[in-house]
Amino acid sequence: MNIEGKQDYIMIKALENGVTIIGLTRGQQTKFHHTEKLDRGEVMIAQFTEHTSAIKVRGKAEIITEHGQVESGE
């Protein structure tokens, strides 16, 4: 969460087919709670919420947040 109490968003753009995005829960045990598959060129905008504490990206993707930009995969 940011200082204004609003939820943080991230944008994920698939740079290849089959990029997997996995949402992980908060709490005593971290669990998968949501998965999505993206094909090359598809974009997903994800949000950190009271239920989502982490987002895992598998595959080659561009990830953009208010803190900067990074590329995942090889």
TrEMBL record:
Keyword Transcription set for record: yes
Gene Ontology biological-process entries: DNA-templated transcription termination; regulation of DNA-templated transcription
InterPro entries assigned: MtrB, Trp_RNA-bd_attenuator-like_dom, Trp_RNA-bd_attenuator_dom
Keywords assigned by UniProt, alphabetized: RNA-binding, Transcription, Transcription regulation
Domain of life, per lineage: Bacteria
Keyword Membrane: no
Record-annotated Tryptophan RNA-binding attenuator protein domain positions: 6-72
Signal peptide (from-to): none
Pfam family, one: TrpBP
GO MF annotations, alphabetized: RNA binding
Complexes and interactors: Oligomer of 11 identical subunits arranged in doughnut-like structure.
Family indicated by similarity: Belongs to the MtrB family.
Name assigned to this protein: Transcription attenuation protein MtrB
Source organism: Selenihalanaerobacter shriftii
